[in-house]
What does this fold into?
Amino acid sequence: MSALTLKGPYWVTVRQHRRVLWAVPALIGVGLVVMVALRVWSAYPTYDHLHRPILTPGDDMLRGLIQSATKSLPFLPLLVGAFVAGPMVARELESGTWRLALTQSTTARAWLGSKVLVAAAVSVLGSLALIGIYRLGWARAADTYGLHWYDIGVYESTGPTLVASCLLGVAVAALVGQLVRRTLPAMAVTGLLTGLVLLIIGALRWSFVPVVGVTAPYTVDAESLLPPSSKRMGTGLVSTTGERFSGYYCPPEAGTRGICRDDVNVTASYADFHPASRYWPIQLIETSILLVLAAAVLYAAFRLVHKRHP
It folds into this structure.
């Protein structure tokens, strides 16, 4: 058992932030109990006087909880980064208490490493638990309005990108905390930087893999070409020159020869989309990008602490 006991700066870090470390599993446990209870409640349908199934209060409450989690979980990496940058790193540098660790046969790199390792371990385990709890409830409401696999919030909350985003937040915090060295400004800067990176990657994620494109005669509604549960990337009409137009450009009642105007010959309808099978490839590519960024930022953080305190 002694081999499993935390020692040195790791024990100090856990001791300093024990309240937060106890609060994390407590909140996860409460969330799990609530989610399981709502799943069980919503599993028993209620029928009206014509014996038609209707939504139960459990369904409404479960969907409300999932919608709230969908809006909240994407901000978890920002919260993790802000906490690590402020209370864990910058506050000790601001107050000078980190110097005490250096008097206990501990190097500056070991001091920073203890912060990063403890925060990363809690972030990984906590985010994995939250993903499991979220998916438990989301499975009941999947593919309904606002809760498709590709919707903002759902995509981020159901896969490993949330774990990688939290690790990116820890890495950014380790660097920003040293540069800013003041608690509140470090928290703000880390949250802004982490959020900016995640916004940029989120804007690019649907270009990580090529879209699937299908065409049909122009009289066919382009929207009907989209498979169920697919992510719509674009629909419309194609002219003889290959130029694409909006589906409203030439209504089907204009004729069956594909002629909408004298100067435009529309020959086909098209639809570009990502099928549901693209979920895991895109998730894994995005996760890899986030982990590479996190590793690069973390390397810079340790280079900085070594340069300042060799």
In short: The chain has a mean pLDDT of 87. The two ends are 33 Å apart (CA to CA). Residues 212-275 form one domain.
